[in-house]
Amino acid sequence: DGKNAMLQHSHDFEELGIPHLFDPGQAMTLFNGEELRTFIRQADWIVLNDYEYSLLQERTGLDGQAIAEQVEALIVTRGAEGSTLYARGEEHRIKAVPADSIQDPTGCGDAYRAGLIHAIENDLDMVTGCRIGSLMGSIKIAHQGPQNHAPSPDEIRQRFQAAFGYGF
User: Fold this and answer.
1) Residues 6 or more apart from 151 whose CB is under 8 A from it?
2) CA–CA distance, 24 with 2 (Å, rounded to integer)
3) What is the pTM (predicted TM-score) of this model?
4) CA angle, corner 51, sides to 48 and 53, nearest 5?
5) How far apart are CA 84 and CA 76, in angstroms?
6) Measuring CA to CA, which residue among 7, 126, 14, 30 is closest to residue 75?
7) Mind listing the pLDDT tens digit for each residue in 33-74?
8) Three-state secondary structure along the chain?
């Protein structure tokens, strides 16, 4: 979406009481500090990569703790280094699931978010959601193209069990 549409959607979600995730992605550079502080206030969850996280802190003048205190969860993805979940005053390091091969990183962030959103939609805890996201990113990077991977639900569950030692 464009800048104005993103601002409007976030406003509308808040007005209507619809929980939402703020994921600025490539649009991050379009917003000033005041606009970003508004997104933080309106969102329930925030997901950013490490570059976007640094930019969010710089533009808002808020540190990570101040941002995390305003949302249910703040998730920072860090590529092969995994991700960090800040929620309820706690910090959780989520390991990256080793990929079968490295083919194409395009779409890995989207795959991560799909796993996280699946967990939110199914009332799973946020650590499990971030772990599903990590797994989905691992599956995606082993395939060329942004959406050319199609793991079955059984494959996802089996790979999750192998990676994390429990099921969902």
Assistant:
1) 139, 159
2) 11
3) 0.93
4) 45
5) 5
6) 126
7) 999 999 999 999 999 999 999 999 999 999 999 999 999 999
8) CCHHHHHHHHHHHHHHCCCCEECCHHHHHHCCHHHHHHHHHHCCEEEEEHHHHHHHHHHHCCCHHHHHCCCCEEEEECHHHCEEEEECCEEEEECCCCCCCCCCCCCHHHHHHHHHHHHHHCCCCHHHHHHHHHHHHHHHHCCCCCCCCCCCHHHHHHHHHHHHCCCC
**Contacts for 33 with CB less than 8 Å, ≥ 6 apart:** 59, 60, 61
Phi, psi of 93 (to 5 degrees): -90, 125
How many residues in total does the chain contain?
Answer: 168
Give CA–CA dist 106/83, Å, rounded.
Answer: 17
How far apart, in whole angstroms, are the C-alpha atoms of residue 27 and residue 66? 22
Q: What is the pLDDT of residues 63-114, one digit of tens each?
A: 999 999 999 999 999 999 999 999 999 999 999 999 999 999 999 999 999 9
Residue with tokens 């925030």: 46
